Every structure is written in C-alpha cells, then in structure tokens.
C-alpha cells in the first residue's frame, strides 16, 4: 500500500490529518520491521470496525489515562508523547483504561527508548488463549521492552504470548485454530505469562475493558553496548527490507 492511499483511506474514516499520520507511521513501521500482521492490513480491518474517529484520549492524572472512545493506537501515541515531553524523575507507572487496539507495542516502547527512556509495556485484548480444550481466559497480551543505548540503536523486545498473533489471523496468515499459547509441549509457560499480564492490567484499571500498563523510567546504566560487542544479533535492529 502506498502512503497517500493509506492516508486517504484513514482520512475517509474520519481521522484528522494528524491522527491519520500517526496511524500510518505505526502501520508503516510494522511493515518495514517485517510484521505485516500489524501493518497495512490493519487499515481495511479498521474499515470494518465501529469507533469515533474524533474521540480524544483523556488524561486523568500523571499515572492514568482513559481512551474515552479513541482507538488504542492513538491513546498510546498521546501517552508516549507526554512521557517524552515530561519524563519521570526516576520512574512512572501509567495505566491506560479503555485502550484497544494497541497494535505493535514495540513501536511505542521504541519511541521512548529513542528518547533515552527505559520502557515496559503490556496490553490486554479479547480472550483468545486458554489451556487445551479449556475456556479462553486471556488475551495474547504482548510484552514489549525498550532499552536505550549510547550507541544510538536501542534494544526492543516485543513478544506475544500466542504461537501466532490475532493480527496474523486478520491478515490471513494463520487460522484462529493456530492461535494457542506458544511453546508446544511447554505451552503452560506462555499461558501463565499471558494470564499474569491479564490479571496485572485487570487489577489496575478502575472499570472493565481492555487496557494497557506502561512503566517508564530513566536509565541508571548503559548495558547495551557491551552486549552488542559480543556480536550476537539483538532484538529490535534495523528495519527489514520489504
């Protein structure tokens, strides 16, 4: 999908020029990093959803935001903007209520790491994971971690607890039956983490609904360069070629 076509389709949904640009940057970043399930395919998906494109996220206080009807991508974009503009003295926990969909969480923590901040982010989604032959009780609940580096290239870890993502299903890359906790015979480890993250978010929001929890902090050390010097490939490197 070409940029102008994507922007035109987002504007046609009612998004402002600025919000359309924010969404396009997110989807384009996913495509370029080899994650098409979170990329351009999300535009036709948004075209099938019901939402208020003019809704504005509401800042409740320093540590809490409410989606207020806005799509989750834009809620987290605003939250990240504020953390970069007003970083914590040491650390800050931010709870985002009614925040869905949130997209590629690595995109959000990368922005914080590029600004010199450590970030840990998780977000819940509809219940799609459960034990074999059991009920679905947890979302795929990805966990993203961004660590800044003095060498200019942060480490970004972004892992979903599913063997595939819901985005893969939306994009037609996988079937819903393939969406199970990753790990094969060790599936219980991914399921335990998904359940733990689900309960973490659910325990911190004040009303039912999908949400996100962000920890942002100023680093006290610079551990990435010595690790990179070992020569191993670290997560979150340069864009993939598409």
Explain this structure to me?
This protein has 242 residues and is of the alpha+beta class. The protein contains 8 helices and 7 strands. It has helices at residues 3-12, 17-32, 42-46, 72-85, 105-114, 166-170, 187-204, 224-228; strands at 58-61, 64-66, 91-97, 118-123, 143-147, 155-159, 212-217. The protein has a 7-stranded mixed beta sheet, with helices on both faces. A hairpin with a 2-residue loop joins β1 (58-61) and β2. α1 crosses α2 (17-32) and α4 runs parallel beside α5 (105-114). The longest helix is centred in the C-terminal third of the chain and has 18 residues, at 187-204. The radius of gyration is 18 Å and the shape is globular. The chain starts with a helix and ends in a 14-residue tail after the last helix. The model has no long low-confidence stretch (mean pLDDT 95).
Question: What are the defining features of this structure?
Answer:
about 240 residues, alpha+beta, seven-stranded mixed sheet, 8 helices, 7 strands
């Amino acid at each position: 999908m070409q940029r102008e076509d994507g922007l035109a389709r987002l504007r046609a949904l009612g998004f402002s020029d600025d919000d359309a640009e924010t969404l396009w940057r997110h989807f384009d970043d996913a495509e370029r990093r080899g994650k098409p399930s979170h990329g351009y395919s999300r535009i036709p998906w948004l075209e099938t959803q019901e939402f208020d494109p003019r809704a504005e996220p509401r800042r409740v206080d320093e540590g809490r935001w409410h989606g207020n009807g806005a799509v989750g991508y834009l809620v987290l974009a605003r939250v990240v903007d504020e953390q970069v503009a007003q970083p914590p003295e040491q650390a800050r926990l931010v709870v985002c209520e009614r925040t869905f969909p949130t997209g590629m969480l690595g995109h959000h923590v990368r922005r914080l790491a590029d600004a010199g901040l450590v970030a840990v982010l998780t977000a819940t989604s509809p219940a799609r994971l459960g034990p074999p032959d059991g009920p679905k009780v947890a979302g795929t609940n990805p966990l993203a971690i961004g660590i800044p580096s003095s060498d200019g290239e942060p480490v970004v870890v972004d892992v979903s607890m599913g063997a595939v993502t819901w985005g893969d299903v939306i994009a037609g890359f996988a079937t819903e039956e393939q969406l199970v906790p990753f790990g094969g015979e060790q599936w219980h480890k991914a399921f335990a983490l998904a359940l733990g993250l689900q309960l973490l978010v659910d325990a911190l929001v004040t009303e039912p609904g999908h949400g996100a929890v962000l920890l942002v902090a100023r680093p006290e050390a610079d551990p990435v360069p010595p690790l990179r010097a070992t020569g191993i490939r670290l997560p979150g490197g340069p864009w993939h070629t598409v």
